Every structure is written in structure tokens, then in C-alpha cells.
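Sequence, C-alpha cells reproduced for absentees:
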Amino acid sequence: MKPVSFIIPVYNEAENVDQLHKEILAVASTLGVDFEIILVDDGSTDGTFKKLKQLHPATIIRMRSNFGQTSALDAAIKASRYPYLVALDADLQNDPADVPALIKHLEENEFDVVSGWRKNRKDPYAKKFVSRGANLIRKILIDDGIHDSGCTLKVYRKECFENVSLYGEMHRFIPALLKMKGFQIGELPVNHRPRTAGKSKYNMKRTLKGLVDMIMIWYWNRYATRPFHFLGTAGILIMIFSFFSGLMALKEFFQGQDMSETFWPMFSLMTFLIGVQFFILGFISDMLMKTYYGQEGRTVYSVKDVIENK
């Protein structure tokens, strides 16, 4: 087993951080490897930072404001030193006792990521209902091959995050992002505990942000290297539609209809111009993506190993 970095975003969890640290420390001490505990205070307002400063051993990162769980997770990843990253929520619903099994599953199956699967969730019904709906949409748009992408409890190989920056609400879709890059994703059922202190941070606003990010990831997965295929095709289809609406305008013209009294001519012109704009936007986007991947050695692929047999 390799050394482990525990990475935990924290926001207004003053009542939970002491117990969380004790449980992580108890599990980490049984792993038999070096470890570090990184806690990111994401602009807490309830005295969480004061509690965090009293924890030893620990690395405490304090954000200037509440930037969100994804940004806090990204900051922890960039600050981490060890090859294995273990991410947990700070609300004590994730059980640190599951970590050894997750790491074992990762090593035995040569996975790059192992995600926890909360098969028996201890959340309110409304939250579970919204989560199931989001999981269905996620499976349709960006199938990452796991049941519970929203579970923060995961083990990653740190190499997964080379040249990767997280933003928005993308922490829910990290397995999908990594799968796009060719990393191997695994899953293992984990214990999920009811929240006993503090307040849930999930709301409809975060759900809507997550949906927007999901659509962005879908587009990036399918068309990041060939945006012209999407935008150019959409432009051509819209122009074809404008051609048929133009035929309707001509039909009414030859029937003696006053063109100022029908919407077909203006509608045909408008849809044609929209189609042209989509086509041009696709062409420009394609050139920009070629420029993006052509600089600083960026590639659309990820190399796992290079073996030289002499």
C-alpha cells in the first residue's frame, strides 16, 4: 500500500470535525503507511476554523470565501503529497472505516478510482428522490458505469488529476471526467450514516448547477475535440429548416397572399441567419480547440505506462 492523503472539504461543520478527525486518525494509523489529513475550510461562519486549528496532525487550508465543495476539493488535491487520495465528506455520513476496503479494491483490480456506493442511504426521502432523478439523467448523458457518483467517499490515484482542475459542481462527476481520459473506475458498497449534527448544504440551487455542469461534461465528452460536428451540423439542419419554411412563404406568395401579413418570410430569414451563425461558430470553435490542444503539450489522451524492453 502507498502513502495516503485524506482530503476533506469542510463548511460549517463545527459540531462534527473533532469526531471526524478522530475516526480518520484511527483508520489511518492501521494502514501501515505514511499519511496526511488535509481539511479545507470553505469559508465557514460557525467557528469551524477555530476547531480545525486545534486538530493534530492535520493540514488546514482556509479559503477566503465560500467557493463551494468542488473548489475546496481541488485545493486539497493540489496541496496533497501522497500517491493515494481519499476524499470524504465532513458531515460524518461517510464512514472512514470503509477506507481500507476501498484501497484494497483499488489495488487488487488495478483501478485508478474506486467510488463508494451508498446502497442504503440514510438521507431524507426528498433528497434521495432528487438524487435518483439526477442519477438517471447522469446515466443517460454521461454514463460513468457506477451507481452513486454523488458519494464523496472515493479513493483516487493522484495521477488522475494531472492537468485537471475542478470547478462548478463537478465533484459529482469526477468519475465521468476521469473515464473520459481513459482511467479505470471501480465501485464498492460502503456504509452511510444519518446526519446527527449540523445542517445539510444541499438545495435546489446546487442541484440546478449540477445539471448545467452535467450538460457541459456531456458536450465536452462528445464534442470537445470536434465542436464543428455538433455546431456545424446544427447550423446545417437549421438552414434546411429555413429552406422549407421559405417554400411555405413562396407558396403563399403565389397564392396571392400579401407577404406583409404572414410571418413565413421573416421566419425563414431569421432561421437561415441563425443556422449560418451556428455553422460559423462551429468552424471557429474547431480552430480554437486545435489551438488549445496544440499548445503546452496538451493531448486528448492519457498514457498509463511506457515500458522499454532492451
